[in-house]
Specification:
19% strand, 14 helices, 40% helix, six-stranded parallel sheet, alpha/beta, seven-stranded parallel sheet, 356 residues, Rossmann fold
Length: 356
């Protein structure tokens, strides 16, 4: 369905522009990523967003090849025709090889645990690849790399790459399309109409992390509504709600529009330091950020030092209180700094870098 809709969109655009069919060149791009409770959902979300941007540019037709590291990933997304799912590295490489006769213009890797052997196999078939940086991959031979994308404020000192192959900057994080397009949402209906705390924590052990946060918020006397976004609710989350005096709403697997509405309506956010933090940044939400995955190590303090967020350790109430008791002056400073991160121009530049 996705490819058919994309075809119709391109056809409509070309008809409107009076384009010459002989001049049409649609490039095929293969995006390889992973998703699961251990590695989190950020790599998948980022890859999906990049796929949408590439398809929407009318110059590309993307295929997403996803290694699911937990059965729940396929259960949650497997019914969609937009992705090709595999469960092992050998299946991933074999599936990628099945596209060899289709003139793949570029292969993009956002897979932090892909083995060196698999990388070498892919390079031998498709030539230099585009990689998104992850600390899991300590070394990459520059000859294997078309571009190394480091969507961070700072480029790690361990990366020694030629300048023409290295792209780094926070604005190069692909966000979902509507995070660029939608105007601010000022209110939502029901008892949660009073702006409060938006919580979205990725990675493993979600229930345990969020339970500690709620315990701390009770201890701190936080009285505003709390909205907790989870990929899948459970009896444990329902029990958490029933046992606290806080006003809590669990939102399961919200749509892109719904999550934007929740972010825009919130007073403050407490989120993991990966892609979801940057989605909140793009909407101007003042956030506490916490590291919930290995490849987020150090990010919360980097964000704080840059004046974009407050670093929070969810294991300590006094750390959470730095967010809930934020001063008006600090709000203003963070808000001003968030406005300077230009995600809009970043995505256009990123597509140009990939195309070089």
């Amino acid at each position: 369905m996705r490819s058919f809709v994309g075809w119709l969109r391109r056809l409509s655009s070309f008809c409107d522009l009076g384009a010459n069919w002989e001049a049409i060149e649609i490039k095929k791009v293969l995006i390889i990523c992973t998703v699961g409770d251990t590695v989190g959902w950020g790599h998948f979300s980022r890859s999906k967003a990049l796929s949408e941007h590439l398809d929407g540019s009318l110059k590309y037709n993307t295929v997403m090849l996803v290694q699911a590291q937990s059965p729940r990933a396929i259960q949650d997304y497997g019914s969609s025709g937009s992705f090709v799912w595999v469960s092992s590295t050998s299946q991933l490489v074999a599936q990628a090889e099945s596209y060899l006769g289709e003139d793949i213009a570029r292969v993009i890797i956002d897979h932090p645990t892909l083995s060196d052997g698999a990388v070498k196999d892919l390079v031998s078939h498709f030539g230099p690849l585009v990689f998104f940086f992850s600390i899991h991959r300590r070394y990459l031979d520059p000859s294997m790399v078309h571009k190394l994308i480091v969507p961070r404020l700072r480029c790690p000192a361990s990366i020694k790459f030629p300048a023409n192959k290295l792209v780094f900057g926070l604005r190069y994080t692909p966000l979902r399309l509507n995070f660029y397009r939608l105007k601010a949402v000022e209110s939502i209906s029901d008892e949660f109409d009073l702006p409060g705390l938006f919580i979205c924590m990725g990675g493993g052990n979600q229930v345990a992390k969020i339970s500690r946060v709620i315990e701390s918020l009770e201890l701190l006397g936080y009285a505003k509504p709390i909205v907790i976004v989870v990929s899948k609710s459970s009896a444990e989350f329902e029990r958490l709600v029933s046992m606290t005096h806080c006003t809590i709403r669990i939102v399961e697997d919200p749509s892109e529009i719904e999550i934007i509405q929740l972010i825009d309506h919130a007073d403050i956010g407490l989120v993991s330091a990966g892609t979801v933090a940057q989605e909140c940044f793009s909407r101007g939400l003042i956030c506490g950020v916490s590291e919930v995955a290995e490849d987020q190590a150090g990010l919360s303090w980097i964000f704080e030092q840059a004046g974009l967020a407050i670093a929070v350790d969810v294991n300590h109430p006094e750390s959470i209180s730095r967010l809930t008791s934020i001063t008006t002056e600090r709000r203003r400073l963070i808000s001003d700094n968030l406005k300077k991160v230009d995600y809009q121009s970043g995505i256009s530049e990123l597509i140009n870098f990939i195309n070089e």
